[in-house]
Amino acid sequence: MQIPVFTVDAFTNQPFSGNPAAVCLLENDLDEALHQKIATEMNLSETAFIRKLNPGDDFTKSSRFGLRWFTPANEVPLCGHATLAAAAVLFHIKKNTNSVLTFVTLSGELKARQVEDHIVLDLPLYLTYPQVSQNFAAIGDMIVQDLRYSPDTKKLLVRLSDAYERSVLEELQVSAQCFLSAEKTGKVKGLILTLKGNSSGKHKGHDFYSRYFAPWYGILEDPVTGSAHAVLSSYWSEQLGKKEMLAFQCSHRGGELKISLRNDGRVDIAGQIAIVLKGNLIF
């Protein structure tokens, strides 16, 4: 069997930055267990599988596809950067002729469209709720300004003090074992560290910064995370009183996301892409 596979760096226009995702195009149904084996083999934070919903569908002409995402350890209900990567493969490699693509996923229908040199994802917007405890030992003695929880995504949002510079977030050293030891209840599946942006200095222009950790899914740090920004968008829109924002995820690869809250309770998250690999899985 041969399956076309691509590696796409998402939320960047520079190869080897942003967040890499593998994308597989499934011409036929794939044995269930093979999804996980392939994702483990690719060993990226996510591998996306695009499948035809009907036998007569065409990757060049159809506008609706099934989409699933797998980490090296398990399937996940939502992945923004791998959705961006999947849309990029259809738009840029398969030259799909539709203005809007619809993906049928575990998180409902997600749409992607091209706007100039960006691909815009229409994602769910997830609310956060205040947490009583202000202590999270896994980030050491950092001053925490706010602590929120998103029950829909099982993500914990930790806002660091506004007194910190972006460099503090970038240089923070974390341990997967510390996170796993601090949270064993199953309530948290992802940890977002976030910081308010600066209006001055060399990094001015970004409304907020973040880093994202998911050792509970086998990913210590994810470089640029669309699904985390579906949570961050609602929080920072409320805090800043803005619906249009520019965000930067401060991993070592780094990536930029353009955010626009919609009136229908969803969020548009836009990013650029760089395609770095084309090939075939053969087995």
TrEMBL record:
<keyword id="KW-0413">Isomerase</keyword>
<feature type="active site">
    <location>
        <position position="46"/>
    </location>
</feature>
<dbReference type="GO" id="GO:0016853">
    <property type="term" value="F:isomerase activity"/>
</dbReference>
<protein>
    <submittedName>
        <fullName>PBLD protein</fullName>
    </submittedName>
</protein>
<dbReference type="GO" id="GO:0005737">
    <property type="term" value="C:cytoplasm"/>
</dbReference>
<dbReference type="InterPro" id="IPR003719">
    <property type="entry name" value="Phenazine_PhzF-like"/>
</dbReference>
<comment type="similarity">
    <text>Belongs to the PhzF family.</text>
</comment>
<dbReference type="Pfam" id="PF02567">
    <property type="entry name" value="PhzC-PhzF"/>
</dbReference>
